[in-house]
Amino acid sequence: MGRGDGSGRIVSPAGADDTGTRVLHVDMDAFYAAVAVLDDPALTGKPLIIGARDARSVVSSASYEARRFGVRAAMPVGQALRLCPQATVVAPDFRRYVELSRQVMDVFREITPLVEPLSIDEAFLDVSGARRLWGSPGQIALLVRERVRERTRLTCSVGVAATKHVAKIASTLAKPDGLLIVAEPDTAAFLAARPVSALWGVGPKSVERLESRGIRTVADILDTPRPVLDRVLGAAMGDRVWHLARGLDAREVVTEHIEKSIGHEETFHDDIDDPVVLRTELRRLADRVAARLREAGLAAATVSIKVRTADFRTLTRAQTLAEATDVGQRIGMAAIELFDRVERTLPVRLIGVRAEKLQPSGAGALALWDEDESWRRVDAALDGAHERFGTAAVTRASALGPRRDLGALPTNPRDPRRT
């Protein structure tokens, strides 16, 4: 399997067989770092870390040059700089990422209407209905890469296969700036050579369990009796792995996407031990989450928080609400209630709020009266002020004080057209 630093790269030769394929997985190459180079060509070829300019923030992304030193996303910037002291730290520019993401997604939709964005910088395309207009899936993949480069001056990697799962593995192997085609008759041999970690959804813990039984490759999975997989991974994951190892993936490219969660988190410049300050930050984050829910026309049935202490221990707590909500006050109250249950012995370096189990707003039963009517008016006023003057213009009185979230990004940025 290719590594995140671009080593182990595999690409298809010109004219490679694309028999039986119909799905493309297109993934922009080190998107945030590539945008930084696009806007400042002097950064070309240099190791880049995308994150806030203090050692305590978290890496949002890194260039391939930095990844070769072991720098990874979600790593503290201080640790990343110890691994790669010559790296240049570049502040993230989410507005710029959204702008270029729109251009990339427009290219995809010019080719086929069947586009399923996975995030701000990757998507699945079903090109089975575009063959008459644009050619075979392999030819369409070349066209997509060419148009993305022409339109944005950025590169992407493309995997072409009969299923979404195999296409995603192929695009990972092809990075950076590559194309890998897996013809349907070649799927079994292609998968058999991959490590178990290549299978979609098999995380580090599952890999550890499998490898403890001597199951290291997909070929090993094929040789493992189904009951053994179920005992090692659990029935649900065992079933999933059994099918994926055989190239069986019935999922279609879905153009309509319902967010699974919406969250914001922030890393503080200095560890904070004052519960009053931490509760204030939770309210501020809850308002940001609620605003994104309202923008997307969604409500949350569950609220969760994430707390990372000074020793890098991460704690999570979740609470199911009596009624789904998009009201900042309700989300903030739930987040603070969860936080007050957390036993802490050390100051906090990171805190986050997430809305989960999302559903369309108003999907629940209508009450005779709305207990949150006054808070909805507050949210409406905040939304209007933010739209006119920016997010820093107006805030709750309870959230007044030094801003600690200026460098915070959404924890799950997606294609902006969805919301």
What layout of secondary structure does this protein have?
Elements: E1 23-28, H1 31-39, E2 48-50, E3 61-62, H2 64-67, H3 77-83, E4 88-90, H4 94-111, E5 115-119, E6 122-126, H5 131-134, H6 137-152, E7 156-161, H7 164-174, E8 179-181, H8 187-192, H9 204-212, H10 218-222, H11 226-233, H12 235-245, E9 261-272, H13 275-296, E10 298-309, E11 314-325, H14 328-340, E12 348-360, H15 373-389
Parallel strand pairs: 2-4, 7-8
Antiparallel strand pairs: 1-6, 1-7, 2-3, 5-6, 9-12, 10-11, 10-12
Helix pairs in contact: 4-6, 11-12, 13-14
Architecture overview:
- The protein has three domains: 9-183, Reverse transcriptase/Diguanylate cyclase domain (Alpha-Beta Plaits, 2-Layer Sandwich); 193-245, Orthogonal Bundle (DNA polymerase, domain 1), CATH 1.10.150; 261-362 and 369-418, DNA polymerase, Y-family, little finger domain (Dna Ligase, domain 1, 2-Layer Sandwich).
- The protein has helices at residues 31-39, 64-67, 77-83, 94-111, 131-134, 137-152, 164-174, 187-192, 204-212, 218-222, 226-233, 235-245, 275-296, 328-340, 373-389; strands at residues 23-28, 48-50, 61-62, 88-90, 115-119, 122-126, 156-161, 179-181, 261-272, 298-309, 314-325, 348-360.
- A five-stranded mixed sheet has the order 5-6-1-7-8. A four-stranded antiparallel sheet has the order 9-12-10-11.
- α11 packs across α12.
- It is globular and about 65 Å long.
- Residues 365-369 and 405-419 have low confidence and may be disordered.
- It has 419 residues and is of the alpha+beta class.
